[in-house]
Automatic annotation (TrEMBL):
Coiled-coil spans in chain: none
Organism: Pseudonocardia dioxanivorans (strain ATCC 55486 / DSM 44775 / JCM 13855 / CB1190)
PANTHER family: BLL6575 PROTEIN
Gene3D superfamilies: Jann2411-like domain
Protein's UniProt name: Zinc finger CGNR domain-containing protein
InterPro entries named in the record: ABATE (IPR010852), ABATE_dom_sf (IPR023286), Znf_CGNR (IPR021005)
Domain Zinc finger CGNR: 145-186
Amino acid sequence: MDFIGYKSDALGAAVALVNVVTAEPTGDRDTPPEQDGRRLRDLLVEHRYLAQRAPASAEPALRAWARRLRTVFDAAAGDPPDLGATAVAVNALLADVAIGPHLSSHDGQGWHLHYAPPEASLVERVRSTTAFALAMLVSEYGADRHGVCAADGCSRVYADTSRNAARRYCSPACANRAAVAAHRARAKLKATTAPDA
């Protein structure tokens, strides 16, 4: 689903940033900081940002932004999701991004909309596009299309872009593990409550 017409996958980038920074271990203490920074740049390139030449100094700002993005997913994680809290979290993000919408054509891409001013840094572009992607998701679908994985012990987030809006897990692996655990729990309950033969 293309929520904002941007040439990057801003919604996917928001989810990936949050998961890499807040839900996955950052590696052992021997991991050089420049390698960790490359991991974030690679993630952005994968989501179609022009981040190949991003300076290593962008990493702390991207990590801080990922923690801010997480507030939107956490607000929607309740049962039922709290749309008011989700909107407050999105508005807080939007209040802190540099806005300067304009049409741009660069690097062989056709004309497309940029949300940050032309002189914006990579971090500013990531911040504006991911904030707008989450704003479009919430304004279009409320708080039902994103949240924290429902699998026990998983803190990864997801954004549901499917037609049926039934997603509650970050990945098929977590959905499968949850289904197996539920099946085993039902079988155990049935075995303990069955009358002796």
